[in-house]
User: Fold these one by one.
Assistant:
Number 1:
Amino acid sequence: MAPASRHVFPLFFYVLCCIILSNSRTVSGQNKPVFACDVSSNPGLMNFSFCDSSLDFQSRVSDLVSRLTLQEKIGWLVNGAKGVSRLGIPDYQWWSEALHGVSYVGPGTKFSGLVPGATSFPQVLLTAATFNESLFETIGKVVSTEARAMYNVGLAGLTFWSPNINIFRDPRWGRGQETPGEDPLLSSKYGAAHVRGLQQRDDGDKERLKVAACCKHYTAYDLENWKGFQRYNFDAVVTRQDMDDTFQPPFESCVLEGNVASVMCSYNQVNGKPTCGDPDLLAGVIRGQWNLNGYIVTDCDSLNEMFYTQKYTKTPEETAALALSAGVDLNCGDFLSRFTQGAVTAGLVNETVIDRALSNNFATLMRLGFFDGDPSKQIYGNLGPKDVCTEANQQLAREVARQGIVLLKNTQGSLPLSATSIKTLAVIGPNTNATHTMLGNYEGSPCKYTSPLQGLAALVATVYQPGCADVKCATAQVDEAKKVASTADAVVMVMGSDQSIEAEGLDRVDITLPGQQQLLINSVAEVSKGPVILVLMTGGGMDVQFAKDNPNITSILWVGFPGEAGGAAIADVIFGSYNPGGKLPMTWYPQSYVNQVNMTNMNMRPDPTTGYPGRTYRFYKGETVFSFGDGISYSEFTHSLVKAPVLVSVPLQEDHVCHSSKCKSINAVEESCKNVAFDIHVRVKNTGKAEGSHTVFLFSTPPEVHNAPQKHLLDFKKLHLTPKGEELVRFSVDVCKHLSMMDENGNRKVALGQHVLHVGNLRHTLNVRI
């Protein structure tokens, strides 16, 4: 048994060690990929059925599992899998990351002189702000191509534990930056599209994989370390209704629509049960209801935490048996390699359960071609260093950042600036010359950096003043900043946060700008003679009501963590070569909200009896600094309704109870509810002088039954219009899918009565009846 003190070694330091090693390690003599069934070196392997790529996967997997001893099987239950040399199977490292580009987090991937960097796209939250579903998939395709190229030279694996599709429930969460935001529909569309981009092969073979993605962290995981509450032992108390209509939908879409190859269970407990030891959540839902075609992996050392921190079982062998029996196939960490043998010996788990886990693991590797011999002779065998950091990929990183940047305030005459009329631009702030900060977390070595200062200086003469020693801004350099600002034609202030403020393992307590940043901003705005553009480089939202209200601060941009080309994208927007069209994927709350609400309260819906205000735009009715979907443009877009019904009837059988008594809702699963659909057509026109992209949102406000959301997103479309251009946008609405809701018991219902549809400033009332 491992010493009980083992659990106090935080994962953060383990990951940090991996990053340091990845950055410092030189790769020599290992320019070949890791693979099994190398029949050219060992012709005898051709006698094994598992090496015969002409056979079906199930037959091959069964053959392989049958040849392994128990100890050899146990070696393949952990991320650092132990090779079986007698069968021509090498060691394999399952843990690689690719959240927004191939990452050096995790021991499975490293950079070297051969491949010194990979394309680093914006952090996911900014990518989500594009609301561009096709872009989500395109990014996945580029990342998987670079991953395969690195695999071919021995620098990466084939299994990548991305994306993170947790709901950004609370603005203080340090990992909200990794997610697609607070909305279940957006998170679902992002997860499924990005996974398709990562996994789908170019030859159309739906059974095989380009790389294997992993949707994480399942489930109701969104707390790191807040006021003594740790993710390792936090019990998320979640209602059935919130679970089914908020936390679960992104994972369901990831499996059913994205066909993801893996799901990672989280550290936390849900309603008193560790997620990695809950058979209802794993075997019942992921494997049973959703029919996952792949493997279930634990978050790193979560089994360690289940035993040592949560003390959920009496012995580590019981923990190992519980996890395997619940549906875990692979353990990130070494817990199963240490305690599975003892669990089998004690009769706590049957070897057939281990065989099931191995079958899921090996089937995934089979689908990746790991057991098909030399990768150079397979579909992606020609990829190599030349295919990483291509010019096209780097331009895509810049384009994603440009599409995601959100313009939140713009006084007439402020943005865009003119490069010909600005003689001197003061560039002030601790993130002005940011490079690594732009990447966010789960980053890799980028192809190159363009900082905001570099991007702006490429267009006009600049005067730089950091204003603070770092983003914590303990003491603002007010006098120096005011001096350069007072003589400049315009001022750009790049403020915000970095991983020292919000990160994995680090939640915020306050959501105001750190330290004396606000003092610095107001002081500069007071003396500036021209436009003052506040650029907020942050993961989550900030209470910047002061800047919104200050007339001297003429423009506000949120740029997230914009990736390697972030500085160029910021300059493109500020000087008008790109018209911003990003929309906020999360609510920006005032500081008073977090003063009132405990981060540990998982309830999405408000509670009038206690004054609890609820969470996210779907349920929160209080004041906001900025709202979900906010974002303006250098142009104006109008919407006009062309087609929409005013009445929709749902046919029910003649003896249905709702014919004889008044019903507030009907079951969405009833046969009569299927195929009840209608179309909404909206004409969108660009009435301004600048071409630009525009996101059209379709929201619905349902009748007030079953604690329904006050508003929820049904669909969105992204379009690009020239000046005076217009386009007809078509939405197809399935009544039982789009207009339904979960009731208090987790049953899907369609509310009868008036539903209000929202598109831009349009409101349309639709009556749903039987």
Number 2:
Amino acid sequence: MALRLVADFDLRKDVLPWLRAQRTAAAGARGGGAGILENNYESLRVLNVERNGNIIYTYKDDKGNVVFGLCDCRTRQNEHLYTFEKDLQVVSCSVNSERTLLAASLVQSTKEGRRNELQPGSKCLTLLVEIHPVNNVKVLKAVDSYIWVQFLYPHVEGHPLPENHLLLISEEKYIEQFHIQVIQEDGNRVVIKNSGHLPKERVAEDFVWAQWDMSEQRLYYIDLKKSRSILKCIQFYADENFNLMFEAPLDILLNDSGFNLVNFGCADLQNQEKLSKHLTLCVFTNHTGSLCVCYSPKFDSWEQITYSVFYFHKGYSKTFTAALESADSYVTKGITFLNLDYYVAVYLPGHFLHLLSIQHPDLICHSLFLSGNTEVVDMLPHSPLQSLSGSLVLDWCSGKLYRALLNQSYLLQFLWNTRLDCEKMAVLHCVLSCGRDSRFLEAKIIQWISETISSCHSFDLIQEFIIASSYWSIYPETSNIDKLLPYSSVLTWNTEIPGITLVTEEIALPLMKVHSFKGYWEKLNSNLEYVKYSEPHLLYNNSVVRREWHNLISEEKTGERRSVVYVRSILDNAVKVISNLEARRLEPRLTPLFQEEDNHQRLLMGLMVSELKDHLLRHLQGVEKKRIDQMVLDYVSKLLDLICQILETSWTKHNLHPCILHFHRRASAAEFAVFHIMTRILEATNSLFLPLPPGFHTLHTILGVHCLPLHNLLHYIDNGVLLLTETAVTRLMKDLDNTEKNEKLKFSIIVRLPPLIGQKICRLWDHPMSSNIISRNHVKRLLQNYKKQPRSSVIDKSSCSVEFLPLNYFIEILTDIESSSQVLYSFEGHDNVDAKFVEEAALKHTTMLLGL
């Protein structure tokens, strides 16, 4: 199951045993039955979930009286709140944070044909009760329309507040706020001050839809202006103040005569059997400053269903049309939208589950659409579900409160089984976004990549994993980082997703109504400002690093190196990255990495640190430099660590041993497998121009020499797949003897080496071929500035040991140049590389060519 529902509260388990114990105790005290009867247990239901997690429930006792109780979410203790000694039906109920006041809205029980006896002539009675201890009851409203009540829960710790604030939501389409002052009398008895006159004010009116966010104390509502739906939000604060935060036009059709409430307590008064015929609308936010409105219109077809998500923090909406599996599959339940923090789940029981990315909804491949498989689409209860704040889900019918989570184990298993590239992409991101035990998840994903690396054709698995995992490792630390660091290696996706079509449209941004922002509102405003004003491409890429790295390598080849201080600072960055990486490692490495300098990779590493740091400093406002420095080190370290993990997983799987670093052995199937995975890693990092761990190219080249025939090996080298490092070639020269096959290999390698490395390597090979190369280089240096001078045509034969005039003449010229410049061109490893050495090398080479 892609979603896992973890029960936080179960009415039957957390309340019923207490009620039975209460009944037994009361029966023993009175010698008879009392309390709630077994046949009245069906009247037990949840009424409300308050901000602090306390759950208010109601039931009817054996006399038909309405009883209110509360379950403390922290202690799991139950508490009786109040009993109305009338057979009434509860519309709504709320308790203040100190549990001293209870507000309730009730109507006459439908089985009684008469009006409410407490207030003749009214259908709905709204009461405010002092319950610490039970004392006075005040009538707030007695009207013919339904009323819902909700106490505000400010962020205030410590002593009780002297004033409480209560919202009254009327079916007549207005919302009022009552200000209730309380005082203590006779010790701890809490009573309402001036109960005869409670100050109140209108908060909203003429709305057709409203939603309460209990966690953030926000009221969302929609009113119609000239047949246009306008979404508004009111933020309530710890004092009695509240602000209208924004207005946003919504392109949806709402009926002026309609009325719909979300998260204002129990929905029992709505006809649940007709849910599928009504629209579904809800607002979701999260700590990153996202603002999503999820909307599903009335059903007009049993063949397909349409739903939309308005991503206000991104400036566009996406409308999805999902094909139902079969035309005769009757839709008995409406769509359910669930808030999963970084995802919105769209669930239609028996038909499909769609996990939509909130932070990165641009490409449809980053969202997971599952349909058809009953195990996948029937994992949630079929009864109506309501998504509350903080991924809480309430099943009103069963009285269960769940916490909805992405099911890591199921998603990992699904990753192994799916054949669709779009599902692989989506599930990969779903798993990484879970954020729990990231090391374990990465190990599982790497294992999957190692087994299925060739089965994905739409994108590079290694590339996507490295980019996505590095992103998720740093994303929770700082807001707005999602706009600056790449989330995916895929920039476009044109492949259709089976079973679903998509239309994307730009939408008007919310108009913020205040000018000072804190917390969530600051982040939302930052997101909106980004959509309005930012550059189109702020995501970091390594294009500047690529250019600068090539410049440094070119300068190294020509000997024109820029400031030593600059290069040293770049290399110091690399040292910091490697130190940061090694400090976090708990186990010793199995692979022979980080055992050599590899200055080219260290330059690339250091340049990436420098450029990424500059990028974040330019665009991350309000974040101190020290924090950005550490963030960059962590990010680049993570990139390298993931590459090491992939290689170590393959190394361990194939049980390789450090002895593979020697050349005097034949390659095994295991070495072929590791060589293949290293080649894929190289392909993935090359296109993104990412650094590799020092020693990677040496190990890759050694495995290449083991595994490839000579012509393939040289093809890999010539095309830049294998890079000849000094460490690898040095080991090759020392390990291999001078058989004909090995001589051919050595010579083919030497002629492909950069001149500086080639000069060092030649001295390690005691062979006429290396002497020839040394001589050629010596002659090239001597003659590169040589100017021909008039000289005698007579050669002093007495000084010549060989009767070969062209050679004698050439050696004499070299000798003259050496003596005139008074410089002995020594070659590393040879004390006297001079004209005499060149002559001997030439004779040996000629002898070999003539077969003498």
Number 3:
Amino acid sequence: MTSLALFSLLYFAVSVLTLTDSSLSSITTAASPAASKCTLLNRFQPDFVVQGNYVIGGIFPIHFSLKLRDLNGTYRPPPINCNAHKLNPRVFRWAQTMRLAVEEINQNPVLLPNQTLGYRIFDSCAHPLTGKRAVLSMLNGVSEENSSMCTNASSILAVIGATGSAESIVVSRILQTFRIPMISYASSCACLSDRQKYPTFFRVIPSDDYQVKAIAQLLVHLNWTWVGLLRGDHDYGRFAAKGLLRELQDTKVCVAYQEIIPLLYTRKMGLRIMKVMRSSTAKVVVVFLGDLLMTPFMRDYMTQNITGIQWVASEALVMSSVLSGKEYYPYMGGTIGFGIRKGHIPTLGDFLQTVNPKRYPDNVLVHELWESLYGCSPLPSSVTQMPPCSGQESLLEQHSAYMNTSSPSITYNVYKAVYAIAHSLHKLLLCQPGRGPFQNNSCAQSNNIHPWQLQHYLQEVNFQIGDEEVDFDAKGDSVPYYDIINWQRGKEGNIEFVNVGLFNGTKAVGEELLIQEDRIMWAGHQSEVPVSVCSASCLPGSRKAVRRGEPICCFDCVPCDSGKISNQTNSVDCATCPEDFWSNKDRTACISKKVEYLTFDSLGIALTVMSVVGACFTLAVCGVFFCYRHTAIVRVNNSELSFFILFALTLCFLCCLLFIGKPTYWSCMLRHTAFSITFSLCISCILGKTLVVLAAFTATRPGHNIMKWLGPKQQRTIISSCTLVQVVICAAWLIDSPPFPSRNTQYEHSKIILECSVGSSLAFWCVLGYIGLQACLCFVLAFLARKLPGNFNEAKFITFSMLIFCAVWLAFIPAYISSPGNYTDAVESFAILTSSFGLLFCLFAPKSYIILLKPEKNTKQHLMGKEKK
């Protein structure tokens, strides 16, 4: 239960005991229990009364200022009075609309034939306390003679009212005790939909649950993600703000601040709220206030010269004529909000023209209306200080607060409420005995209808009025329709309320809002939608990163990581590109990864040239040796082994070409196997030559005949055997786990590197290890023979060639492991070429030099070191 409701009930209890400030009926029990009499200790007369067969009540805040005194309990409280100089012409029109509707119904031969409706209309002064007084006076009756509260059913069948939700809460709690239904025309608080707390409450205005849903959709539709919230310190403001926050939970809209304007407004409090508004980056402010609280706030607001705020008004404020003056336009122009759907009442304008002091000379409210509209009084000058007038002045268009019948939203609600009661009562009276809805299928007695019986029919009422269908749901709420209202500058500089859209709660979710943005004039007289965000939108290629400790609407824009993209504004996360794709430079799209392998580009061409040049050099040396095959230097170095070595070196140079180009299944298998077998053949030949050299010089010693074991046939056997071991290893490798082309996406994620996977790492390193073993054995044997006699000791050159060979391949191992991508193939190719050139030049350059440039040394005597000095 709210504090206001508790206070009202407490006040009601005190009033019952004191019987001072309201027209309560006191039950004074005499000595005999049978003797009881209802006595009115104070009278609170209605402002308009018409008798009828069935009477309904009306509560309107005709005055919007209340004279409250300090009730400190030291004296008898005086009556609570409304401020006579604060009559609201707009609300007075509402009261006249109720009178008009009753007159139309009484003259209608179809609706409630032979029956008449009466009414009692009271002024609530826009305050719960006087609202309570009004409803209690309404229940008591005008006098003791007419009051039947002590003995019979209530003379009031239903009540039209009240305006504010706080007033309706108080009034409804009193009426539910007597089971009297009430229909509110302006109370929209969602709290009133609770049938457990307010079982007799109905309304023809949509619940704030729909209003906050509409406001939330508007904020989302206009991309206002950072808004302020200003509400009144009452149930309407509390429940509306709570409902809006609930609706915004699943959206991208955040509330920057929530400020409360107290019921007892002070300038100090207002300035503090304005300071918050000025310092905030939120340029849109949602308002859940009525003009009663907004007016003093706006007076201080205008003195601070704060502009640029886009107001979003609830239905309690959006149609307020109090704030429609031209002085408000620079500060509130462009306001947009949801107003109660308009309706047309054809006879209203003419009826309002008939209300004047001449026709109602005794009605105080009509006199006050004239004072408010014309600034004169039809009463004698001795009674008032205002200048006199006839009371027959014509009501003109400038009296829009009273005469505005073009958009009577609340007025139309009052009209619908009266007709809802009339249709319910009509259906009740048509009930046929034995087919009724009450106990034993009974009907209500037409001469003694109880309000709770009328409520049953009111719950089920359904009728057409104009082009609108009127009915109530199980909670007493009506169909939710709102007009979207925009505050625009009129011809005379004042504010005009322009309809720019519609919210239809009966539509499917997401289709309720219909708005014409091209017709809207925004704050600051701008035609473009204002921007209200905590952080600027993140462009495609970046994502939102929420700041720690701040709302989700406040974020930083973080560029997407490599390999991820975002192609939408304000992406929450970046999407990872598929395996064969990579992000472009702007991180907005996935593009195919660049495919890399050792191609015939600059590096590939260089290796190709080196390979071809090496093969050509080898063939050239082979040609020289072939031409000079009968000379001593060729014959003494075993020409057959020399040609084998040159053949193997040619293949070594040419096998580098297998490493260049797009890897295929066959090229991958040929790369390593061809390289390993040709090098093994080459090293086997060099090993045979080393053994021959070592054996040749050893055979010159007495008792040694080792050369017979190293003849040409044996040399071929050694070469074939050593090469065959490598062939067997390669064959096992190809059978078990052969090399194959693979796509390496791990080393550099932005590229696809096509390479040859070795398949079996063990086999690969066995191949290299076997070649290394051959080279080491060759190196050891050549090293042992380096000091043998002779001017041309080939063992020295074999030693140097093996030394270079081993150095190259020892350096190859770490370079191969650490080389990125296609450079792995380049490193292996370079190692093959380098070691091949080392073998070619170390083994054959000295011989070619002698053959071509020093032919005089190409003799057996010189080579054996036996030439004469």
